[in-house]
Amino acid sequence: MSALLEVKDLHAGYGASRIVRGVSLSVEEGAGIVLFGRNGVGKSTFMQALMGMVTPSSGQVLLAGKQLAGRPAHEIAKAGLAIVPQGRRLFPDLTVQENLMLGIRQTPKGWTLDTLYELLPRLAERTAQPAGLLSGGEQQMVAIGRALLRNPSVLLLDEPSEGLAPRIIAELAGVLRTLRADGLTVLIVEQNLKLGLTMSDHVAIMDVGKIVHESTVTEFRRSPDIARRYLGVI
Amino acid sequence: MNPNMYVRWAIRIVIIVALALAPFLLNTFRLSLLSEILILGLAAVSLSVLVGVTGLPSLGHAAFYGLGGYAAGLLSVHATDSAILGLLVAAVVGIIFAIPAGWLSVRTTGIVFLMLSLAFAELLFSLSQSLRWLTGGSDGLAGIRNPVLLPGIELSTVPSRYYYIAAVVVVVYIMVRRFVDSPFGHALSGINSNALRMDALGYNVSHYRRVAYSVAGVVGAVAGALNVQNARFVAPENFGFMTSAFLLVMVILGGVKRLHGALAGAAILVVARDELSSRFDSWELGLGLILVLVIYFLPGGVASIVERIAAPFKKRREPRATPLGTDESVVSR
Lengths: 234, 333
Fold this sequence. Notes:
The complex is a heterodimer of chains A (234) and B (333). In chain A, 35% of the residues lie in helices and 28% in strands. Chain A has ten helices and ten strands. Chain A has helices spanning 43-51, 73-79, 96-101, 113-119, 121-124, 136-148, 166-181, 193-198, 217-222, 224-231, and strands at residues 3-14, 17-28, 32-36, 56-63, 66-67, 81-84, 154-158, 185-189, 202-207, 210-216. In chain A, strand 4 (56-63) and strand 5 form a beta hairpin. The model of chain A has no long low-confidence stretch (mean pLDDT 92). Chain B folds into two domains: 51-239, no CATH class; 250-312, no CATH class. The relative contact order of chain B is 0.17. Classes of the chains: A alpha/beta (234), B mainly alpha (333). The A-B interface holds A 51-53, 72-74, 76-78, 82-83, 85, 89, 91-94, 98, 101-103, 105, 122, 126, 129, 133-141, 146, 150, 161, 163-166, 168-169, 171, 191-194, 233 and B 183, 186-187, 189-190, 193-194, 196-205, 257, 318-319, 321-333.
């Protein structure tokens, strides 16, 4: 199967700080890749560089063969990448529905508000409520819903479980598994190993701005020393 | 319709009835003041679209106010005294200026945008002084006739001009309100809140800011035209720094985040000027004091008073957050 998203030797950072140092990664259509790594190794900067929120200094980001590196974020979003940013990043003064509508990109066959509310019925009950008054779990659902309404080719999720209670993470995992089962291509950065592994088929590990390990989830599970070495998991 | 909507409609109806009855309740001088409040309020509303909705702080909004004024004034002197044509020409002139100025300005934000906006207004101020053959220079443009609403309906009295001004301000305010409440307006709020996030959602931030700049410019120019049709005089001071500064003060007094706050801010400023200038030499000192007090005690502006009063009642009606996601703990691996 050909790679839908291909990243080649991507470098990015802030000013003189080089954070992402030559990352190469392929994401095939329909695949789910989880990117693990300790805090501060450059995972979020990598995701932001993919989205054009941080301008890469060199390298390539190809989505279905189309070069995206260096393009403005809104063009990358229109090309088919969508991100659920770390910390949800909703607009607290806007209602749930207004937040969701900011994400709408009409496609002939794709997510609409109606189909989204079927997936996330709790949001349908709270359409008129300001997003800032929602609980953390509900806010995460709005952030995911907003990204889905862009009907992306590849969905990027940056630590979706951050700050959520275990019970809520289980609910979140259920939603993400449904999306994966529907064939959505996902690249997820996650600190929660269990969540990351249950919704992916490939694992990549980042350390000091580089990918230091790539394998299938099955191979990763069979090699506990990898998690121990790079992630400090005992 | 929920109870909030009933309250809102009741307030709207009370305002419309009060505006309609004002000529019967106020003397000519007070009615002139009310006309001025409405005109300056509309100019402040247009600035609020930039400052409050889009997050672009302008200290040169008088550029549009003055341009609209000169456009309406010159039309009246040289061509026609049609009131509606005066507004339309002002709007066209406003957008002709807003397109290149916006293209240059919205690439910047914050203090740089503020200084650019000031520079544009000062440029027009200087031009209005130097192009004496066209503008009358520092003496101002004389010979502006009473506006004519329809053939035979000349707005020659204070009440007739007041009704015309009130009608235009209400209609334009509703249009601006609808613009701000539209998905486009929500996108502007999003850009104000976090431009990079909106960029990543697929929004061309510069394009949205340019449109907001143009809308603010057109409405500001219409307000400027109304002012000249009412006062039948326009001078370089309409472009002046003080005009821009007062408009910004109105927005801050009323509440940056609330469109209707700009109208309240205009009312406070005009009334304060009227009341204080008759008692003190430096009425601006009193205005400064009011501004400090509002910023210190009412950071949301005077328009937030209503919301503060309504807040306890509102809280009682709002549904409680469901157990979904209570953030009570950090996840263990």
